[in-house]
Amino acid sequence: MTPIRTPTSEGLDRRQIVRRGGEVVTIPPARPWADVYRTLEKQWHVGQHVALLARTRSGKTTAARAILGIRDWVVVFGTKPRDVELYGGFEREGYVIKDSWHPTDLDARRVIFRPKGGLADVASQRKAFEAALEEIYEVGGWTIYIDEILVLARDLGMDRIINRLYTQAASNNVTLVAGSQRPRGAPLNMFEQSEWFFLWRIADLEDRQRASEFLGPNRWMAFEATMILPRYEFVLCNVATDYATRSKVGT
């Protein structure tokens, strides 16, 4: 049976790293996921955006599915025509795939909105997603999950409407939960306007700098930790309260 904690993980508990200039950075001890989840249930409020930053196969989507269970009304923006790993997990939890959807359609509380056209028809896909975002903003109350925000912002050219949502949607009880494998390319408002940050191991220096630079007192801790975190472990930070912990979904 695989142990819940690896020696590498245990070795990071309260580990102190001395930075250039003598500043001491302490990595928080790992906590069971059940404890972290209860914290989020109590403290992750509607309108508080969440950023999930990790390379592929780090556990980002698994963590997203877990925390989205806290919300009553969730729409997943399906940008890929077929992705068993992404869509399959959501479908097993009761999400319904729709190629035509409006946020006033309340027959399903958990939706994967995957418009027709796919990557071969960028204009059609962009039009469908932009219309949905405008309508979600007007209706309010929905939590939007975007697995890779660069697909919408860069590939589909939707950075303008995404930035507007980041700065204005919270006032209408809309929450954005967005992930990115390359933080340095993601919209700046994803970092300036998000309150909760999940950060896994990040190899690239510039990505690590962007992922951690808006975390206030936890900035250097996150910068150092994301260079050495064991696989699947993440650091979770809240920029309003300076809360920081370390965990792994399922343990």
Please explain how this structure is put together.
α9 (205-212) runs antiparallel to α10 (219-228). With 251 residues, the protein is an alpha/beta fold. It has ten helices and eleven strands. The protein has a nine-stranded mixed β-sheet with strand order 5-6-4-7-8-3-9-10-11, with helices on both faces. It has a single domain, classed as Rossmann fold (3-Layer(aba) Sandwich), CATH 3.40.50. The model has no long low-confidence stretch (mean pLDDT 91).
Task: Jot down its keywords.
single chain; 251 residues; alpha/beta; Rossmann fold; nine-stranded mixed sheet; two-stranded antiparallel ribbon; 11 strands; 37% helix; 19% strand; globular
Quick recap of the structure?
The protein has helices at 7-12, 33-43, 60-68, 84-92, 122-139, 149-155, 159-168, 188-193, 205-212, 219-228; strands at 16-18, 24-26, 49-53, 74-77, 96-98, 110-113, 143-146, 175-180, 194-199, 234-238, 244-247.
Portion in helices: 25-40%
Task: Tell me, briefly, the overall form.
Answer: globular
How large is the share of residues in beta strands?
15-25%
Radius of gyration: 18 Å
Count of individual helical segments:
10
CATH class: Alpha Beta
Write down the secondary-structure element order: HEEHEHEHEEHEHHEHEHHEE
CATH superfamily: P-loop containing nucleotide triphosphate hydrolases
Oligomer: single chain
Q: CATH fold name, please?
A: Rossmann fold
Count structural domains: 1
Label the CATH architecture.
3-Layer(aba) Sandwich
* Poorly predicted ranges: none
Main β-sheet: number of strands, strand sense, barrel status?
9 strands, mixed
DSSP, total strands: 11
Determine the mean pLDDT: 91
Question: Biggest sheet: strands side by side, in what order?
Answer: 5-6-4-7-8-3-9-10-11
**Head-to-tail CA distance between termini:** 14 Å
Q: What structural category do the secondary elements indicate?
A: alpha/beta
